Every structure is written in C-alpha cells, then in structure tokens.
Q: What sequence folds into this?
C-alpha cells in the first residue's frame, strides 16, 4: 500500500511541474506504467504450502496445516467432502479431522492458483506402522541386549584370562625365586662342606656322567668307594639329578644289550633300587617292541642250549612275556 501511495505522489508532483510539456508527460506516464508493472510482478507470489500431516492415534485425529495468502480461501476436497479454510493474518491455516478407519484418504488443497495433494493415512495403516516400529525397537533392544551380554561375557573372559595370566606369572616368579634361593643355599652348603663331602659329591657326578644310577644304587656305590656315611649322604642330598630320567636311561641301557619282557625289565629296575614311580615313568616312556624282545630272548636261549618249542614257550612265559608274545617268538624263529 505504501508503494502505491508513494508512486502516485511522485506522479502528481511530476505532473504539476511539467504541465506545459507533452513530452515530459508522456515520459512520466511511461515511468509510472513501469513501476506499476514491477509492483504487479512483486505481488504475484506462490504462497500456498502444505506441511506433512500430523497424526494422533490416541485422539484418533489427523491435522493438515500450511500457509496461504490471507486474502484467499483454501479449498480442501476429498472424495466425500469439501471444506473451506481461511488463513489467518499470519497466513496460516490448519484442519483437524477424524482418522479414516481402514482406507487411506486423499485431500486436494487449492488457493485458486496452486493445488497440493495430501495423503491422509488410515487408522489401520498407522496402527500397522506403529506395530512395525514397536517390533523394530523390540528387535533392536534385543540385539543391543545380546551385544551387551556378549560384550560383558567377553570382558569377563578377558578379565579371567588376565587374572590367570597374572597368577601364572606370579607363580612362575615365586618358583623362580624359590629355585634361586634353593641354589643359593645349595651352593652355600657346598662351600661350607668338608673335604670328604666335596669329594663324595664330585665322585657321584663322575659316576652319573658315564652311567645311570638309582638313588640307592649311587649311595651303595659311594659306600663301596669307602666314603664315610655323612659324606655319601651329603653327595646324595646335594647332587642335581632327575631320578625318573635315570630310570628311563637305565631301562634303555638294558634293552640295548639284552632282551627283556615288560615285567622282566620292571623287575630289573626295581632290583637296581629305583622307586616304583620312577620305574613306571621309565616303562611308560620306553619305546620297545615286546614281541621283538620275546623273539630276541628265544634266540638267545637257543644260542646257549636247545629247547623244544613247548619248553622254549614255557621259558619265555617264565621270563614275564605274555602268551601272545611267546607264541609270536615261536612262530618267527629262524
């Protein structure tokens, strides 16, 4: 309105000043016409806008809202209804309606210049979407709960593994320190030992360098060497040796130069003074073909004297071979 008043005032003023000039009048008329044309272009705006519909399942309603020129009437049509909406001074309009029950409903909105189409979803459609949303959220919550549970289990597993690792490290360190302390005490005891005790210890080491002994066997050997009892006991107590490995080596030594049954070798190691657990360790770890040992033993007997098959069979049984092993030997004699 302000532009119109201003333009007219300019026109009248200029007209009065130039009343004696037709050329000037024509020029001003052309200018006024140009200004009016600009004003007309400025006033023609496409102002009809329609927002996304809003829904309330709780109230069973939908809302259509938007903006339009306040001087115009917005006509909203559906297949069953026509509604006139008057925009406010702020150019806003809205409409509240009841949700369609099962079929989606299409509205056409027009201000005489523009037309907009709005689809209103039915209550059934909205309920289905809400159910889908709830299901998606439930599944998401389930997945998040599983992921959380797995993460907690993994964290607990790692914590347990870390705890075990630390405990093992601490135990390893404790053993190391204990062994170091034992060696220190051992060396201190050796340093303080008498000459006879040191010599007995050295003699025991010499024996173990070229042969295998049980603890009892080594003790007896040192006694045989005429070391006093206290020196012998000192040597046995302070020598570093694995008696289980000594039994294993002694068993292999026997099998290298003679044939034995399982029981015969067991008894021989017991005779050598090894303890039961040391003997069992040796027997469990020795690789021996007891059938072949039975055959070798049979051949040894036949090299020494003559036997009938039955007599040789009985002799092998006496040596501790099983019936199958003895029969194998008889069957495979040259």
A:
């Amino acid at each position: 309105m302000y532009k119109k008043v201003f333009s007219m005032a300019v026109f009248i003023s200029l007209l009065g000043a130039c009343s004696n000039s037709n050329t000037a009048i024509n020029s001003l008329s052309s200018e006024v016409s140009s200004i009016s044309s600009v004003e007309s272009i400025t006033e023609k705006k496409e102002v009809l806008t329609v927002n996304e519909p809003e829904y309330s399942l709780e109230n069973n309603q939908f809302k259509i809202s938007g903006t339009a020129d306040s001087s115009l009437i917005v006509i909203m049509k559906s297949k069953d209804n026509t509604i006139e909406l008057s925009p406010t001074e702020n150019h806003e309009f809205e409409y509240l309606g009841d949700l369609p029950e099962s079929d989606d409903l299409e509205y056409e909105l027009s201000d005489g210049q523009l037309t907009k189409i709005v689809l209103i979803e039915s209550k059934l459609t909205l309920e289905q979407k809400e159910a889908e949303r709830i299901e998606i959220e439930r599944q998401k919550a389930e997945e998040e709960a599983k992921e959380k549970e797995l993460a907690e289990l993994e964290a607990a597993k790692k914590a347990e593994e870390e705890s075990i690792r630390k405990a093992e490290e601490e135990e390893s360190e404790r053993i190391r320190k204990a062994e170091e302390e034992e060696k220190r005490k051992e060396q201190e005891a050796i340093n303080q030992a008498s000459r006879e005790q040191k010599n007995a210890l050295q003699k025991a080491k010499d024996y173990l360098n070229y042969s295998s002994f049980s603890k009892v066997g080594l003790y007896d050997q040192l006694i045989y060497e005429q070391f006093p009892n206290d020196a012998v006991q000192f040597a046995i107590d302070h020598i570093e040796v694995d008696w289980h490995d000594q039994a294993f080596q002694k068993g292999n030594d026997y099998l290298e130069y003679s044939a034995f049954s399982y029981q015969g070798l067991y008894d021989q190691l017991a005779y050598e003074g090894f303890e039961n657990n040391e003997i069992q360790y040796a027997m469990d770890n020795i690789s021996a073909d007891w059938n072949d040992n039975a055959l070798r033993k049979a051949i040894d007997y036949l090299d020494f004297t003559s036997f009938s098959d039955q007599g040789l069979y009985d002799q092998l049984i006496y040596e501790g071979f099983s019936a199958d092993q003895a029969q194998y030997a008889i069957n495979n004699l040259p």
About this structure: The first strand starts at residue 49 and ends at 50. The chain has four domains: 2-43, 49-121, 136-192, 194-331. The radius of gyration is 57 Å.
